[in-house]
Specification:
With 194 residues, the protein is an all-alpha fold. The protein has helices spanning 9-23, 30-36, 41-47, 52-75, 79-96, 104-109, 120-142, 147-171, 175-192. The protein has nine helices and no strands. The longest helix is centred in the last third of the chain and has 25 residues, at 147-171.
């Protein structure tokens, strides 16, 4: 909350990201996102006059940057450390929510877009995935992977982890994360050995 007692814009965005990660975008109204963030609906529309799509877009970007900050920090120790941090972050979310929450970026990405165009939240989701891939690929290249191989492995890591988070929720188990972690770490070790 800000000093005036009004909910902050960031708090509303974080609440929306959490709500989308649990229920998806189509099943979540702006009213429910405001309630989840403990914000008055009027404040939500004040910060997001374009409504649900604007708030969803900001929630995707917020999540993207939050994950990217963690990746940047951990990738300083190398791609294996970055992968471990990426997996641990999602493990914390899945387990911490008792398997009710996943990734809001993925939740937005799998929604069927309207026939009349590509919604801004979907564009933001694509940009976030590209950002995460770019960070991982750069680290892989810095540690000896060839450029194309680094790009392909970075895409595989993001796709595998996102899919694994969904599997964990469905199975109510972290076993998919454990299996995915072992195989991705082996792939990273193979391409970074020189």
């Amino acid at each position: 909350m800000t000093r005036s007692g009004k909910p902050s814009r960031e708090r509303i965005v974080a609440g929306a990201a959490d709500m989308i990660s649990r229920r998806g975008l189509s099943a979540t109204s702006i009213r429910e996102m405001a309630k989840h963030a403990e914000a008055p609906l009027g404040s939500t529309y004040h910060y997001f006059p374009e409504g649900k799509q604007q708030l969803a877009t900001e929630a995707v970007r917020f999540t993207g940057e939050w994950v990217a900050r963690s990746l940047r920090k951990e990738l300083e120790a190398g791609p294996a450390a970055g992968l471990s941090a990426f997996l641990d972050l999602w493990r914390g979310i899945v387990v911490g929510s008792d398997f009710h929450a996943g990734c809001p970026v993925l939740a937005v990405a799998i929604e069927e877009p309207p026939a009349d165009g590509v919604p801004p939240a979907l564009v933001a989701a694509a940009e976030v995935f590209e950002q995460w891939e770019a960070l991982l690929a750069a680290s892989l290249r810095e540690h000896g992977a060839e450029s194309e191989q680094a790009a392909q492995l970075a895409t595989l890591v993001v796709a595998a982890v996102e899919g694994t988070v969904a599997m964990c929720r469905a199975k109510r188990s972290t076993q998919p994360l454990d299996h995915t972690a072992a195989q991705l770490q082996a792939l990273i070790a193979a391409v970074t050995r020189r």
